[in-house]
Amino acid sequence: MTAGTPPVVLIFAGSDPTGGAGIAADCLTLASLGCHPAPVVTAVTAQDTTGIKQFACVETELVIAQARAVLEDMPVAAFKIGMLGNTATVSAVASIIEDYPDIPLVVDPVQLSDRDDALAEEPLDDALRTLLLPRATLATPNSREARALAPGADTLDACAQELMSLGCEYVLITGTHEPTPQVVNRLYGHRRLLETFTFERLPGDYHGSGCTLASACAGALAHGLEPIEAVREALHYTWNTLKHGLRLGMGQYLPDRIYWGGGPVARRKPDEK
Ligand code: PLP
């Protein structure tokens, strides 16, 4: 990387026209954290802030061509995987990533939207378990995703152990969906619970929080932070984007990925010159 240039993070994700989740969320997050996002589109969704209307997966060959074009042109410092949409794309992405074993990989194993709409043509648990999670530096399932990916496990600790036994180096299980007064996020690595990060539970209903968190983790890793520090930074950043969430449509709040500023033009009030 040339001194002074931002680290490039290659994203595999679906598009979301609200800008709340998916590629727009990843790009905003990564730009906000001083990275250059390189977005490979895996699927196109039609949705608003109340739910998914429809989606279509991009042809696997075109997903591969997008990724190869970037990888042959730019020094990629981290990968971030979000919506993949079908088994063929999981398999294609896994085969690309296999060629770059030294690049950190963050996997957000998303198959459902936060409103429980499908974001995949078929269940992807087996493909994720066998093809992508073994190569992940960090997986960021929420507690529901962790249980789905580790169906034999009876506790979240056991889910994390199972995911690590597949080869996943670190597992961050987020606690938003758990019935606890505060949100407790658990980071596992080296076969044990490393740290719990507890946050005030915010009252809103948010769209794109998981994408924001996983991208922020990838951005922090791309900057060279150690995984534990990367996760700590990413969780604090994400919580702040939610605390400053914006209700731009009629449904869920969207995280404000540039809550910290964004410059005088971007943040000028309508009556200001
Ligand atoms: N990717 C896309 C394209 C989506 O539409 C969604 C949710 O609707 C997600 C990922 C996951 O969103 P979240 O960050 O809320 O888990």
TrEMBL record:
Keywords: Kinase, Transferase
Record-level GO cellular component terms: cytosol
EC number from the UniProt entry: 2.7.1.49
Protein name: hydroxymethylpyrimidine kinase
Top EC class, one word: transferase
Keyword Cytoplasm belongs to the record: no
Organism this protein belongs to: Candidatus Muproteobacteria bacterium RBG_16_65_34
Single Gene Ontology BP annotation: thiamine biosynthetic process
InterPro entries in the record: HMP/HMP-P_kinase_dom (IPR004399), PM/HMP-P_kinase-1 (IPR013749), Ribokinase-like (IPR029056)
GO molecular function: hydroxymethylpyrimidine kinase activity; phosphomethylpyrimidine kinase activity
A Pfam family recorded for this sequence: Phos_pyr_kin
Domain Pyridoxamine kinase/Phosphomethylpyrimidine kinase: 16-252
Pathway per the UniProt entry: Cofactor biosynthesis; thiamine diphosphate biosynthesis
